[in-house]
Amino acid sequence: MLEIIFSPRSLAVVGASPDPERLGHVVLKNIVVNGYAGHIYPIHPTATVVLDLPAYPSITALPEIPDLVVIVIPPQHVLPVVEECGKKGVKGLVVITAGFKEVGGEGKELERLLLAKVREYGMRMIGPNCLGIIDTVSDLNVSFAGMMPLSGEIALMSQSGAMCTAILDWSRAQGIGFSRFVSLGNKADVDEVALLHAWNRDPHSKVILAYLEGITDGPGFIAAAREVTQQTPVIAIKSGTTAAGTRAASSHTGSLAGSEAAYEAAFSQSGILRARTMNELFDLAMIFSYQPLIQGNRVAIVTNAGGPGILATDAVERSGLKMASFTPETLTFLRANLPVTANIFNPIDIIGDARSDRYRIGLEAALADPNVDAAIILLTPQARSDLIETCLVIIELSRTYGKPVATSFMGGYSLGPSLEMLSVNKIPNYTFPERAVQSLSSMVQYSTWRQRPAPTYRSFDVDKERVRKLFSSVRESGRVELGEIEAREVIDAYGMRLPQSRLASSPDEAAKIAAEIGFPVVMKISSPDILHKSDIGGVKVGVSDASSARDTYELIEYRARKYSPGARIWGVLVQEMVRTGREMLVGVTRDPQFGPLVAVGMGGIYVEVLKDLAFRLAPISELEVSEQLRSIRTYPLLRGVRGEQPADIAAIEETVLRVSQLVTDFPEIVEMDINPLVVHNQGEGAIVLDARIILK
Amino acid sequence: MLEIIFSPRSLAVVGASPDPERLGHVVLKNIVVNGYAGHIYPIHPTATVVLDLPAYPSITALPEIPDLVVIVIPPQHVLPVVEECGKKGVKGLVVITAGFKEVGGEGKELERLLLAKVREYGMRMIGPNCLGIIDTVSDLNVSFAGMMPLSGEIALMSQSGAMCTAILDWSRAQGIGFSRFVSLGNKADVDEVALLHAWNRDPHSKVILAYLEGITDGPGFIAAAREVTQQTPVIAIKSGTTAAGTRAASSHTGSLAGSEAAYEAAFSQSGILRARTMNELFDLAMIFSYQPLIQGNRVAIVTNAGGPGILATDAVERSGLKMASFTPETLTFLRANLPVTANIFNPIDIIGDARSDRYRIGLEAALADPNVDAAIILLTPQARSDLIETCLVIIELSRTYGKPVATSFMGGYSLGPSLEMLSVNKIPNYTFPERAVQSLSSMVQYSTWRQRPAPTYRSFDVDKERVRKLFSSVRESGRVELGEIEAREVIDAYGMRLPQSRLASSPDEAAKIAAEIGFPVVMKISSPDILHKSDIGGVKVGVSDASSARDTYELIEYRARKYSPGARIWGVLVQEMVRTGREMLVGVTRDPQFGPLVAVGMGGIYVEVLKDLAFRLAPISELEVSEQLRSIRTYPLLRGVRGEQPADIAAIEETVLRVSQLVTDFPEIVEMDINPLVVHNQGEGAIVLDARIILK
User: Fold this and answer.
1) A588/A570 same-domain check
2) B211 part of contact set with chain A, CB < 8 Å
3) DSSP string, B424-456
4) At CA A448, angle to CA A447 and CA A452, rounded to 5?
């Protein structure tokens, strides 16, 4: 897929001017000088030769139909050319020209027309408003970038062209290479989802990097990423995550930035590794593209200096990796072959006067040990250090044992040729030890993701039809918010437990219902117009006899009329008083890009103060809900501390899954809260005490 | 102070061999070739000339008494030389020789003798077991390092010699320079405290960096750092903070690594900035040594590309800085002078084709704006970029306006000379924007620290004598743990409130006391041998009448005898039942390096689950206790949420300060817990319900 763009047999450049100052000339030159082997056709209204190539006045005038047409002409001329391409049967486009959606107004309309044309003729298009694309596998540089990237096994997509330029420039200096390098621009047609599909199982790319500002099709993105990450790690940096960043992003590309929680959930549910900084993005890119995937989390460290060894050990513990415990054989071997002053326990300290032979002893012992999954080699340059020989040892042993290794040769001035040697031989080197550790830790995270079973989804037997009818009647009555009784009906239709509850429309009826349910009861005003019932004194708990029930009815109704004049009042709800339990909250908001985002956490004041909620996007799998619940900080309280009985965790999970099914079935639910969900002890279930539902 | 070591007028090198392979030769050569201007005397038993300098057989044979003597001979010969130095009146020593404390056993004893000698003659000594010292101000390189650092305004001390080597090597490549560069080695005499004092108000050092593994004198370190950080920022990286890291540290230097919480508290209470990684250490070192101190937290960003602008904006928000809001004048100026496609709001986007003139417009407008405290300049190299001219603009404007600036020129390959130009002109440049932001954020943190008023300590009128006597009697009885009644006495003597409470020694007496206190009461077994009274059913709350009081006495006593046979039982404590309130915990542990560490946090199950405790080292100042309490996550619960009354925060603070005074007065208290401290509403005080105290 998309080969027509990345590996075209022939291409034309519309706007390929003979004037070296023009962008079209620069793009053509990049194609020519970087060794593209297919036919290249410059298109120019008047020139007959450009860069020694015969030029043509139009696509129609060409001797063959090119696979790819690159467009670098003013925006007002783009549509007719695309129309011509479509008619002639061209299938691939790269539109570098700017002046479309990003300028708003007319540009937006122009882009809509452009996309319609592309779709009409079944073409695929990169851009508009992009730097172009570079493919080192087919030696194709269709861009106005100032240089060609080195060849490598990293595929990169970026929504920012300037970020492409910066990365290109920086990566050359670092010796980091790419297989594909794509500036997405306005991504009118080909977007991150299309590229993920195109790069799935790409034999030339061991890792995919994405610089994202906003995502157009959230669910499509998750589905594509979930598939791709089964074979290939995807590392993303998402900018525009803070309020101010989002404002900056909007002024920049006009793409919706999406809520931070939704992106976190999307990345976690699709196995995407998130880099927090550009440095981290490339730290990870290096280890994933250079080294085999890690199979466990036990790390050995070999060092010629104590201090860096301690730094690295600290970092291992903090990052959730484990310091490997060596087998007795390994220890015996190390004891026999290293000087007595060496430390043979992990970290292996081979002492400052170590040469490559001692690095061989330490590293080979570590890599051969079945208790070791990866090794980090630290080196501070000392008088006796033989850097090149040490590199050779590391390169040889890493290939022999097939376990990932990373190095931290600490220094710069006297390391020069050794750093290049490591880079060329695909040993990721980090200036300081902490980043080597962090990168291995992300590898473990990805490796764990790959080993997860395929997601399974529970489907509950629910009364969908009843909810559909209810929603219709709510809409017909011109409301978007459900009243309490309606919300209860939805909860009931989706199989969640509710306290017994009936509506009373007079004090006497309230007393009668309460007697039937059994004292004590809770009484609440019932009105579609009063959202926060407690705030106006519209809720009373522990009503203990018939006389109080009558008084309470009157009081609550009086308050409702007084504090919410004009509110429709349906009566007073008389409810079973549920015995106490842990109070949880299950909430839903609808993210504009990713759809329903389901939150779970402890209810009550702790939600506000601790903000201890975990989010997942619906539909939620069985494994995901389990992880979701376990990721809240107060989870130990559910398991029970100090001899308390554990809470019915299965009942909480089931509630979340039923809510997930509900909001997936009904996209018109834009907001929903179950608060509190009273959770009893293990095996005793959970009861929804109150619920709010708001429709679109 | 320590000028004798860092700026000696003359020096001798004991062990200065003519053999270029010997360490003594390397050290002498470093002194000679790096331009030291004072007299240099090689000392060697047989050679008469070393490196063209006349050599002498001993210190005694020298024509003058050198300020500094450097010792590079085998450990067994060190003591006699030091004795000779002392007798001749030498005052400064650098002992490079290894084989002392770090090898254990005899080495440890040798170091003890060495230090005794040094003290006896009033000398000061760096080492033993170190790389040496380098001082670029006096062109002094007394070390076996492979190179001289660049000159700069960063003073560095490191407990790891290898880290020194690595930093030296790396800093040369980065263009980062130092004023003083010290390998502390075993720091038998001169340690981090002595160096902090020595470098206080050093006109050549704008920032002090410390690589720490362990600290010998915690309180001394805090006192010194507190003083120094009033003038000079101190940035520390502390390794050996995790359990595994600590083990690695012990095998490395034998220094105690100290608890993580104690270090955090020590750094926070003395204004030290903590770097988490080596990268961060130098990120901060650059901005502090290159730029003026920031005066507020409002940042302007000038960029020629949208993507990096968003990244930087996100980072600003996350780091607690603020994006500056420009004045109307600034906006008018920018609107009038930048192209219409530019973004004139912060971040100022001057668009990809910007040259230095547009950087001047954007940056000058930002720096001149009174709402801006610092500026970050982002540049991705584009076709029209004029890097050198842009550097000149930045250098000029940063000097004119005196506000700190940082740059992120993103790239590498085509940036070469511009990066060097920035570095030479003291503009800190960061590969990617996030690190520039993080560095400014640390500057704000330090600037805030400098503006703090001097700490004030409350001294409460307490009955110290009563506690002293009580502790004596506890020790005389051969115990270390106080019984409950004893602990109550201590709490009372230090002016903290307790519930009414009396000891009953029979069921009838219990009933009588309970009636006098007023029902309901709490009853607890009283025994010096039973620590966790609840666990054995030794506590009963809500005892509501005389008959229950009698029953409870019998039951509790029975359980205590059954579950803790052999425990001494003093009777049953009958206590006033305190009305409920927020339950807090105030605890103390004694850190081996830093002394008493006082914790405060919510009590009950939340301590265990959320680990929401804040720590400070005693003695705690009024401002510190206030910050301590505000730094716990559950602090909003104390202020009151959802219309609750606020808790008596002043009473909690006072309790912490009284505990701080107690544990400062009595260093023999190694552990103490007030749990729970029941805190009532504002103005209503707090009551200690239970306390444990353990003595050394």
Assistant:
1) no
2) yes
3) HTT--B-SSHHHHHHHHHHHHHHHHHHTSPPP-
4) 120
CATH number, domain containing residue B619: 3.30.470.20
What does pTM read for this prediction? 0.86
Q: Which range has the top average pLDDT, A242-246, A340-344, B103-107, B458-462?
A: B458-462
Judge: B347–A276 Cβ closer than 8 Å, yes or no: no
Q: Is residue B138 part of a domain?
A: no
Chain B, 150 to 209: residues with Cβ < 8 Å from chain A are: 158-163, 165-174
Name the residue with higher pLDDT: A622 or B241.
A622
Domain membership of residue B264 (yes or no) is yes
Contact by Cβ (8 Å): B569, B505: no
Contact across the interface for B380 and A147, Cβ inside 8 Å: no
A278–B431: do the CB atoms touch at under 8 Å? yes
For A425-444, the pLDDT digits (tens) are: 999 999 889 999 999 999 99
Domain identity same for B662 and B603: yes
Q: Which of B341, B215, B239, B381 is nearest to A316 (CA)?
A: B239
B208: tokens are 């002090």
Structure tokens at A29: 């030159």
Q: Distance (Å) from the C-alpha of residue A334 to the closest C-alpha of chain B? A: 16
Q: Which domain holds residue A234?
A: 145-290
Rounded Cα–Cα distance for residues A420 and A426 (Å):
10
With respect to residue B92, please indicate whether it lies within any of the assigned structural domains. yes
User: Could you tell me the pLDDT band of residue A250, with boundaries at 50, 70 and 90?
Assistant: low
pLDDT at B257: 43
With an 8 Å Cβ cutoff, are A411 and B174 in contact?
no
CA pair distance A138, A35, nearest whole angstrom: 9
Collect all residues with Cβ–Cβ distance below 8 Å to A519 and sequence separation of at least 6.
A543, A544, A545
Across the A/B interface, how many CB contacts are shorter than 8 Å? 279
Helix residue ranges per DSSP H, A291-408: 306-318, 328-337, 356-368, 387-401
User: How far from B577 is each of A43, A631, B542, CA to CA, in Å?
Assistant: 93, 38, 7
Q: With an 8 Å Cβ cutoff, are B169 and A323 in contact?
A: no
Q: Determine the pLDDT at residue A248.
A: 65
Cα–Cα dist A443/A428, whole Å: 13
Chain A residues 43-82 within an 8 A CB cutoff of chain B = none
CB A100, CB A110: distance < 8 Å: yes
Count of domains forming chain A: 5
In this prediction, residues A286-305 reach a mean pLDDT of: 96
What's the gap in Å between the CA of B508 and the closest CA on chain A? 33
A412 in reach of chain B (CB within 8 A): yes
Minimal Cα distance from B311: which residue of A? A239
DSSP characters over A488-538 = HHHHHHTT-----EEEESSHHHHHHHHHHH-SSEEEEEE-TT-S-TGGGT-
- Asked if the ipTM is above 0.85, the reply is no
Please identify, among A541, A576, A611, the residue that sits at the C-terminal boundary of a domain.
A576
Cβ–Cβ under 8 Å, residues B237 and B278: yes
Tell me how far CA of residue A395 lies from CA of A153, A291, B583, in angstroms.
18, 11, 59
Q: SS3 of B472, please?
A: helix
Burial of B580 (0-12, 13-18, 19+ CB in 10 A): exposed
The residues in A 601-660 lying below 8 A from B, measured between CB atoms, are 605, 608-610, 633-634, 636-637, 641-642
Buried b (16+ CB within 10 A) or exposed e, A518-543: eeebbbbbbbbebeebeebebbbeeb
Using CB atoms and an 8 Å cut-off, which of residues 215-274 of chain A contact chain B?
237, 239-245, 247-249, 251-253
> Which of B553, B577, B601 corresponds to the end of one domain?
B577
Residues 6+ apart with CB under 8 A from B1: B194, B197, B198
Separation in Å, CA of B240 to nearest CA in chain A: 6
